[in-house]
């Protein structure tokens, strides 16, 4: 006679449930990814972040076994990627975007914030920072930042500078500099990095405050770098002083990373982080960011998330001090 199987008790059921929960990340690791991964870059295709993230994506494709595709959605001060992830995306690991200081600043500038940085995103990995600076044409009369600053003061409201957009970090730094030094100049915002430099070369601007898209042109003599924005001088341009060395107590490299939608599976997060970290440290990618003078700013997922409250407080203070509004 066949004996009935014993009914599982409460303790064994709980143990089985716990075991299944613990197995979930491992299962996600085995099954992910099974289709291409998209990275939304909220700048034009010529922007420094676009170039860096495309290089990273190319290397990461090898580690993930699926294409990593970059899509550009420029405009709105670089927040379109964050808006997309916060409002529409599923946390399945197939859609990421760049999280940068402007995207963390903009919600404090709006009466109704389009997203909550701490609640609406999963922080996968912090990658690199920018090297910002002010460039002019080589035929301009200004060979140093001090000469440029003296000209700005002598000609209030007549000197123009371009940036990648309103309230981008380079714009904010220039406004901070103006407040400290008493400058009165004209800001000309563009839709993303690259167009501003072309306008400068075409004679439509006096200067551009930009990330290091200008590096090769400065080295080739097509542009002149007057000042940089970092804590230290840019290694490739050791003769160019920082703003602080010029008496303006502002420094910014604006480190950024990649985020996904909220509530991403821990196993997927781990797979993404590990593959992106390997790509970040790959010699091919390191050579790319060296050419762009972009400093490494790596943080793992946990440390990246832990760094966000301090960055948000910094951006809140900037908005308050400069009276920024959209």
SSE order and pairing:
Elements: H1 10-31, E1 37-41, H2 48-64, E2 68-72, H3 80-87, E3 95-99, H4 101-105, H5 117-120, E4 121-128, E5 133-136, H6 145-154, E6 160-163, H7 169-181, E7 186-189, H8 195-201, E8 207-210, H9 215-219, E9 224-228, E10 256-261, H10 266-280, H11 283-291, E11 296-299, H12 301-322
Parallel strand pairs: 1-2, 1-3, 6-7, 6-8
Antiparallel strand pairs: 3-10, 4-10, 4-11, 5-8, 5-9
Helix pairs in contact: 1-10, 2-10, 2-11
In percent terms, what proportion of residues is strand? 15-25%
Q: Could you name the ranges where pLDDT drops below 50 across 5 or more consecutive residues? A: 1-28
Q: Write down the CATH topology of the largest domain.
A: D-Maltodextrin-Binding Protein, domain 2
Class of secondary structure makeup: alpha/beta
The CATH superfamily of the largest domain turns out to be Bordetella uptake gene, domain 1
Q: Measured on Cα atoms, how large is the radius of gyration?
A: 23 Å
Our count of helices gives 12
- CATH architectural designation of the largest domain: 3-Layer(aba) Sandwich
The domain tally reads 2
What sort of overall outline do the alpha carbons produce when their principal axes are compared?
A: globular
Mean pLDDT: 90
